[in-house]
Amino acid sequence: MREQETPPSPAVCETHRAPDASRVLPAASPFVGRRSGVARMRAAKLALLVILVLALALGLWRPWSRSGGVAPSEAAADAPVPVHVAKVVDQDMPVVLTALGSVTPLTTVTVKTQLAGTLQSVFFREGQSVKQSDVLAQIDPRPYELSLANAEGVYAKNVALLDEARVNLTRYRTLLAAHAIAAQQFDAQMSLVKQYEGQVKSDAANVGTFKLDLKYARITAPVSGRLGMRQVDPGNYVTPTDPNGIVVITQLQPISVVFTTAEDNVSGIVKRMATGARLTTEVYDRDNSTLLETGYLETIDNQVDAATGTVKLRAVFSNAQQTLFPNQFVNARLLVDTVRHALVVPESAVQDGVSGPFVYVVKPDQTVMVRAVKVGTVDHHIASIPAGLALGELVVTDGADRLRAGAKVVLPSPADAH
């Protein structure tokens, strides 16, 4: 028996209808976008591959080499380099030793009282320049005046007693000659005279001591120089044991500069001084730009500092304008000798290489060559060259950092070759 067919439900039949455009497009849009993205990626890869192939072909082809041209980097390297040059000249070259030094006074004195007493008066101003023996202060002299008066009284008394003893001794000598007195009495009188003579000498010394105390009560400058800050005010009781004293005097004219040099330089300095030569010494400020004073070397220390391998030297300067001040740091330049007819070039021409110093020498065809040199004394940016250069040769002073051996150079103007 055939089953009876059931008609499709309304819902099923609806799916077989012609789809509405508004319903189909939204359902199909994701698939369409995915396909277009894949297509774009493939096109980008293909374009990149084509670019790489073209770049490789261009590199192998190198049209500039076929046409006889030069690559931009090579062309720049072979281009002439503008430089400044200087001639090797003949001139006298000073042999100068340079060192950092310190201004050191020849004399620094702490003025102290030699008496104990009240500081009665002060006659100076801080920072004042004084001369030797100028009065600086006064200690109360009254106690020492009284002591002097007492000593003078004792002295006068004993002088009178001595005179009387001497008169009696003369009488006793006459009586002894007449056998009127015993010799023992004469000897006793002679001994008494000698005692009084000793006492009078002692009293005279006491008088001199108290006179000296009165002199010491007026405190004077032991040396000429400049006064520092006052260490004690009037009215204070001062003693010789006060550590700070009353004031410090520093001698400024003349003044010295102490500096050091390597022990290898000592023999040359000693030889020059042994000939009687006065070695000129200049001192510059800390920037080494301003000349402060010119003097001469006075002495060399008597031993080498084992820790540093250096020797101390002292140069003396008149310091008329007081440009040098105690404990000031300066740059000292000691002229040891002068080399006659040395070959010199500007210091900027000397380059430092792995094998040592060298210069770029300009040849007649305006190319450069590297020349190893030996550098001697350097002074004021001028270097002496004992070996390696000939008189009149041109050396590069500016622009050497862009050069190599055989490079072409160009001079801006004839004035640059000086």
Could you provide a short overview of the structure?
The chain is of the alpha+beta class and 418 residues long.
Folded structure, characterized:
The chain has 418 residues and is an alpha+beta fold. It folds into 4 domains: 10-60; 81-91 and 341-416, conserved putative lor/sdh protein from methanococcus maripaludis s2 fold; 98-105 and 251-340, Beta Barrel (Elongation Factor Tu (Ef-tu), domain 3), CATH 2.40.30; 114-248, OB fold (Dihydrolipoamide Acetyltransferase, E2P), CATH 2.40.50.100. The chain is built from 7 helices and 23 strands. The strands form 5 sheets. The chain has a 6-stranded antiparallel barrel with strand order 3-12-15-14-13-16. Strands 2, 17, 18, 19 and 22 form a 5-stranded antiparallel beta sheet that branches. Strand 17 and strand 18 form a beta hairpin. Helix 5 (142-177) packs antiparallel against helix 6 (183-216). The longest helix is centred in the first third of the chain and has 41 residues, at 21-61. It is elongated. The relative contact order is 0.16.
Essential attributes:
418 residues, alpha+beta, conserved putative lor/sdh protein from methanococcus maripaludis s2 fold, Elongation Factor Tu (Ef-tu), domain 3, 4 domains, six-stranded antiparallel beta barrel, five-stranded antiparallel beta sheet, 7 helices, 23 strands, 33% helix, elongated
Mean pLDDT over the full residue set: 84
Give the quaternary arrangement of the chains.
single chain
- Calculate Rg over CA atoms: 52 Å
Number of strands: 23
> What order do the SSEs take from the amino end to the carboxyl end, as H and E?
HHHHEEEEEEEHHEEEEEHEEEEEEEEEEE
Give the number of helices.
7
Strand order of the largest sheet: 3-12-15-14-13-16
Helix content: 25-40%
